[in-house]
Write a structure and sequence with these properties.
With 226 residues, the chain is an alpha/beta fold. The chain has a single domain, classed as Rossmann fold, CATH 3.40.50.300. The chain has nine helices and eight strands. Strands 4-5-6-3-7-8 form a six-stranded mixed β-sheet, sandwiched between helices. Strands 1-2 form a two-stranded antiparallel sheet. β5, α6 and β6 form a beta-alpha-beta unit. It binds adenosine-5'-triphosphate. Adenosine-5'-triphosphate binds next to α1 and α9.
């Protein structure tokens, strides 16, 4: 499904991803781990450009439209699935079954807010769940997520990850929680200095194998990079 061969990604002269090769098959659940600044988001954004029309992407930046309601932001996930006129109708005067779909999705993500509330009024964790709902509402076979649960408490994060995994055959996700990566994902890819330093089935890994991918200090890559 995805083949990256000797991939190098740079910002200006600075190489962030270096000569990286990675294959991911349909049906895999892959956690990408690594210290802050190591290149996870850069890699994930590139993976999304490769899979584009087959994948839903929940980026770290969220990309919510602050002045619009929860419903409108979530409905945007469906824009590519419907005709322009149908979308316009639903954005102006939403159909009851679309409201029900969005409402059920928000409930499944434990997002208990009025659908007509503007997202600028929401907390960080609520905004994160709106962004997640919008990605799930794309109803793609592959989910690409970049720290989608970073501002949520661990119990809620586990429930949300279960929702993501049950709705997508293939999941590629950056995670900052070692135990969650081991418990929920089949395969762990660990990045260090823009290269793959670990690529193994989670069933053969213990938390101590992952310490290096969660403990390094911010800025360690920039000391070595490009
Ligand atoms: N638009 C950009 N222009 C220049 N440098 C960038 C840009 N985006 C990221 N970088 C740099 O590239 C490196 C990798 O960034 P990236 O966001 O991919 O790391 P990350 O592993 O996802 O980090 P974090 O876990 O903190 O989100 C960092 O040193 C970052 O400062």
């Amino acid at each position: 499904m995805l083949r990256l061969e000797a991939l190098t990604l740079s910002y200006g002269d600075r190489k962030v991803i270096k000569d990286l090769s990675l294959s991911i098959e349909q049906g895999e659940k892959v956690a990408i781990v690594g210290a802050s600044g190591v290149g996870k988001s850069t890699l994930l954004a590139h993976i999304y450009t490769q899979l584009n029309s087959q994948a839903a992407y929940c980026a770290q930046s969220q990309g919510l439209v602050d002045g619009l309601s929860v419903f409108h932001n979530v409905y945007m996930g469906a824009l590519a699935r419907h005709h322009f006129g149908y979308n316009l109708l639903n954005l102006i005067r939403p159909q009851t079954h679309r409201i029900n779909e969005v409402s059920e999705l928000c409930s499944a993500l434990l997002l208990d807010v009025a659908l007509n509330k503007t997202v600028s009024e929401l907390s960080g964790g609520q905004r994160q769940r709106v962004a997640l709902a919008r990605a799930l509402y794309q109803q793609q076979s592959t989910f690409i997520g970049d720290e989608s649960f970073s501002s949520l408490d661990p119990v809620m994060a586990q429930q949300l990850i279960a929702q993501v995994l049950s709705r997508h055959p293939t999941v590629i996700m950056v995670l900052h929680d070692c135990q969650m990566a081991l418990n929920y994902f089949d395969r762990i890819v660990g990045l260090q200095d823009g290269e793959i330093a670990l690529d193994a089935p989670s069933q053969i890994l213990q938390p101590e194998h992952l310490i290096a991918f969660f403990d390094r200090k911010v800025g360690s890559v920039s000391d070595n990079g490009g």
